[in-house]
Amino acid sequence: MGMCSSAARIGSITAPYVIYLGSYNKALPYILMGSLTIASSVVNLVLPETLNRDLPETVEQMQECQGLCNGLKKRKYLEDEGRKNLPIQREVRPTQSDI
């Protein structure tokens, strides 16, 4: 929630300056907004897919998710005597796209 609030404040502070770019060249605000949109979509391509997957709930579980977190191994976590979480392999059921 804090990141969204910070991004909104930064956007509202810089918005008037983007409009002033139009005084130099009418296409500059459109070029800037278009390039920011393309850059954010490229960054979103490296986010992991979370559809029908168990999301990590603790720091230990998140440390297992390294790199791009591509989800080659689907794991389920169980409490072991309340001290630490151990990964246990889970059955992977085929989806419609696998058939």
From TrEMBL:
One GO cellular component term: membrane
Topology of the protein relative to the lipid bilayer: Multi-pass membrane protein
Domain of life per record: Eukaryota
Predominant localisation class: membrane
Localization per Swiss-Prot or TrEMBL: Membrane
Annotated Gene3D superfamilies: MFS general substrate transporter like domains
Protein name: Uncharacterized protein
Taxonomic source organism: Pagothenia borchgrevinki
